[in-house]
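Holo prediction — FE2/S2 (inorganic) cluster.
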Amino acid sequence: MTDQIVITVNGKQHTVQAAPDTPLLYVLRNELGLHGPQFGCGLEQCGACMVIYGKEAKQSCKLKVADVGQTPIITLEGLMEDGQLHPVQEAFIEQEAAQCGFCTNGMIITTAALLVKYHHPSERLIREALDVNLCRCGSHLRVLRAVQRAAELMWGGQE
Ligand code: FES
Ligand code: FES
């Protein structure tokens, strides 16, 4: 059985026809054509499917679409503004912080949420925040540098 469900994604309201327990990830990718969030494990274990949910980074692979309610969702596609890449995206490109790129959506989304909360997070805090994002290619050190660079681009150097 399907229902009409209204969700707000990247600043726009969408009405989708879906079974209430459909994972948000499936709706984003299959109904809305947003392929930034990736399907990795489907078990909230790898972070490939991250979206910004309200103000927090969250896995979308087990979040039921009917439970999203009015909480706004931002996907990788929604980070750009006025045709400009988000500073986190710029920093990841500058630092070449991806190899195969499969984990990159999750890394960028987690970082974008982190840097709104903490303008200059310590290395320990960055590592803790990104602990939910697995990278099988071992790009972690470049990711770490990219997060620090993104903090500079967003908030300037640390005083
Ligand atoms: S696909 Fe969602 S955490 Fe792995
Ligand atoms: S760059 Fe390949 S999984 Fe992270």
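READOUT: The mean pLDDT is 97.
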